[in-house]
Design a protein that fits this description.
The complex is a heterodimer. Chain A is mainly alpha-helical. Helix content of chain A is 63%, strand content 0%. Classes of the chains: A mainly alpha, B alpha/beta. Chains A and B meet through helix 1, helix 2, helix 4 and helix 7 of A and helix 1 and helix 2 of B.
């Protein structure tokens, strides 16, 4: 039953990555939900790049409340799913969607002047890297290895793990 | 199915992580907001809303506009009357850039109970523009050739005066003597002598008199009054306020209209009391550059900066003024300085102190201006306990050596580099501002303010207050007392620059200390320095 590999393997690395991303998403969501003054207005209103007008439209008074609420909920849901190792594929898709929007609102294109950026980026920035990492999680779910799934669908997954 | 200890660890291992992250996020947010509210509670600053005005009921107030130049046009728009030409231009701007808000802001502006019934402008094109744009079947706008005819016509209840400075007082006095209400642009007079005469006329008249310092309506300034009153800054010992502009418009080189000529402009009437010179388009459109018609930086921009602070700390006329400067950036035939430094002394100034009684008293007010550099130097009020930056936004930093905040500084609850209070009523509103000059005015809170997150033209609020007081009675925020102070300060500054010496004010007699052999008004109006 406990035919596990010795040492640090791919599963462990993916789990670590999954937990870190989940951690990050959850913290971003929690920080916002407990701060009554938080709003995505500034981020959206200052959007740049080809989809500038789409993001500007989201700042409309009638919908900004929904935009904020959905963003917080999505962050928390993705965070918890990644941490607990449940519904990873669905969560990864939502995560990819969120990160794509964050990236497109403020893309690291060299011809755009970006204010308040903490690093130096040329097309690729941390949002884009996290997005790629979510793709890995989508393709390599590890909840059965480390996560609640291990407790509920144990047998089926043992074998799969061995194949990795 | 059996679960081993390893299964339990690997299955439930992430639960404590999730719990920890949740706790960390929640406590950090809650702690931050607790710290903030603790600080705000101690400061107890209340961002104030403009006082509610009773509605302007009854028949519409009949208003005449005297002077439909750049400012006259803005004032009419604030009243609710935008020229056809402007509406077309703004529509074009919106078509080019949907974010352009001027048209939307104008359309959203509340309607005032006024009728624009009369215009007086010595330039035919401008007068005709008013007649064509605002005449309706029921209300034809009438053009008057002179202001005297308009004031005596019996058709106007109130006039707005937006002429060159040398016409402000004669027109305002004439209107007040005929009990016609007056809204006059700043500075309210052009000479020292007129300033007393206008004050007399305003006191005697039944009509209401308002000076056009519209920033008195700006929310950040009302909040600043509360900040100062609560002793947040401690003893204010220095104020710095500045003008930095670096564009033609900002240096008063306005456009010259193509149809301007001796046939379309009543040149004699424009000159009035000014020295008789042959027809000159440059003088007509760019009159702010000559002492004969305007008063340069001291009357045009220092007057705003002085009044912005006078409305916050009510410091009155200084005991003395020293000014220096020159024509250093626009040597184009003008005779008013384009770089100017002014020091005003208020040795008796005190609004309370956090230190032992008698240690602190007095303040210097520094105004520094250049029309050859656009770097934004903010207005700052410097007190023993804190520093306040004041514009459309308002920010307060504690001073590292503050007495009042000593404990909080030592406890690490405050840091000199971190603002303890920030007030930005328009924080979430992205602006599409067009020109350098309008940005300059916007930063100073001279263009608009925000009420409940909606951008409102402060000139509109100022005019509305005037109209409301005309109809319902009450006190004007910038009446003759405030106007007297700003005009006198502007004149003392002009005199100091021209004479190259200190000008003193006698508070007991309310006069400028005489200087032997010097006729102040002759100096003020002369085109050369002494």
């Amino acid at each position: 039953m406990t035919i596990t590999k010795k040492g640090w393997g791919l599963n462990d690395s993916v789990v670590l990555m999954r937990i870190f991303i989940g951690w990050h998403f959850l913290y971003e969501g929690i920080i916002k939900i407990y701060n009554p003054d938080w709003t995505s207005f500034g981020y959206l209103a200052s959007a740049q790049g080809p989809l500038k007008s789409v993001f500007a439209a989201l700042t409309n008074e009638a919908i900004i409340g929904w935009v904020d609420g959905l963003n917080m909920a999505a962050l928390i849901v993705v965070g918890l799913c990644f941490l607990f190792g449940v519904f990873e594929k669905k969560a990864a898709i939502i995560g990819i969607g969120l990160l794509a929007m964050y990236y497109l609102a403020h893309p690291s294109f060299p011809w755009l002047i970006e204010a308040n950026v903490e690093g130096s980026y040329w097309f690729v920035n941390k949002n884009l890297i996290e997005l790629a990492a979510c793709m890995v999680i989508f393709q390599l779910p590890t909840g059965h290895y480390f996560g609640l799934k291990r407790l509920f669908s144990k047998k089926n997954n043992e074998i799969k793990i061995e194949k990795v | 199915m059996k679960w081993t200890r390893r299964d339990m660890i690997k299955g439930l291992g992430s639960l404590p992580i999730a719990g920890a992250v949740w706790w960390a996020g929640a406590s950090s947010s809650v702690l931050n907001s607790k710290k903030r509210s603790e600080l705000l509670e101690q400061l107890n600053i209340e961002p104030s809303l403009p006082s509610a005005l009773p509605p302007i009921g009854g028949n519409p107030i009949r208003v005449g506009i005297i002077g439909y130049g750049i400012r006259g046009e803005q004032l009419c728009r604030a009243l609710g009357f935008a020229s056809k030409e402007w509406l077309q231009n703004m529509q074009k701007s919106v078509d080019e850039n949907p974010k352009h808000t001027a048209l939307k802001d104008f359309q959203a502006q509340d309607k005032l109970n006024v009728q624009l019934v009369a215009v007086c402008d010595v330039f035919d094109v401008r007068a005709q523009n008013v007649v064509d744009s605002f005449s309706t079947k029921d209300n034809p706008v009438k053009r008057y050739k002179t202001y005297q005819e308009m004031i005596r016509s019996g058709n106007v209840d109130a006039v707005i005066i937006a002429t060159p400075d040398h016409w402000h007082a004669p027109m305002a006095i004439d209107a007040l003597e005929n009990n016609v209400h007056v809204y006059v642009e700043k500075p309210m007079t052009h000479t020292v002598e007129e300033t007393y005469r206008l004050r007399e006329a305003a006191k005697k008249s039944k009509a209401k008199f308002m000076v056009g310092h519209q920033h008195r309506q700006t929310l950040s300034f009302k909040t600043a009054q509360d900040v100062v009153k609560k002793g947040t800054l401690g003893h204010i010992n220095m104020i710095q306020t500045n003008t930095n502009r670096n564009d033609d418009n900002g240096a008063w080189n306005y456009d010259i209209h193509e149809k301007a000529n001796e046939q379309t402009i009543d040149w004699e009437q424009f000159l009035g009391s000014a020295p008789k010179v042959p027809f000159n388009k440059n003088h007509f459109f760019r009159w702010r550059k000559w002492w004969a018609y305007g008063s340069g930086l001291s009357g045009d921009l220092l007057s705003h900066d002085y009044d912005r602070l006078n409305c916050v700390i009510n410091m009155g006329i200084p005991e003395s003024i020293v000014a220096s400067g020159g024509i250093y950036t626009h040597n184009d035939g003008r005779n008013v300085p384009d770089v100017l430094q002014v020091n005003m002394e208020f040795p008796e100034f005190s609004i309370g102190s956090s230190q032992k009684a008698g240690k602190e008293k007095g303040m210097t007010f520094i105004y520094s201006a250049t029309l050859g550099n656009g770097f934004n130097r903010p207005t700052i009020l410097m007190g023993h306990d804190a520093t306040m930056e004041l514009g459309n936004r308002l920010t307060i930093w504690p001073d590292g050596q503050s007495t009042k905040y000593d404990e909080m500084l030592k406890a690490g609850k405050m840091r000199p580099s971190t603002p303890i209070f920030q007030y930005d009523p328009g924080a979430n509103i992205p602006d599409a501002i067009s020109s350098a000059t309008s940005q300059y005015f916007a930063d100073k809170g001279l263009m608009w303010t925000y009420i409940d997150g909606v951008r409102v033209d402060s000139t509109f609020l100022h005019l509305r207050e005037w109209l409301s007081v005309i109809r319902n009675g009450g006190t004007l925020s910038c009446g003759i007392k405030e106007g007297f102070e700003e005009a006198m300060v502007a004149h003392m500054t002009g005199l100091s620059w021209k004479l190259g010496r200190r000008i003193d004010w006698d508070h007991n007699t309310e006069t400028i200390e005489p200087i032997e052999g010097v006729d102040f008004d002759a100096i003020l109006l002369s085109s050369t320095n002494v």
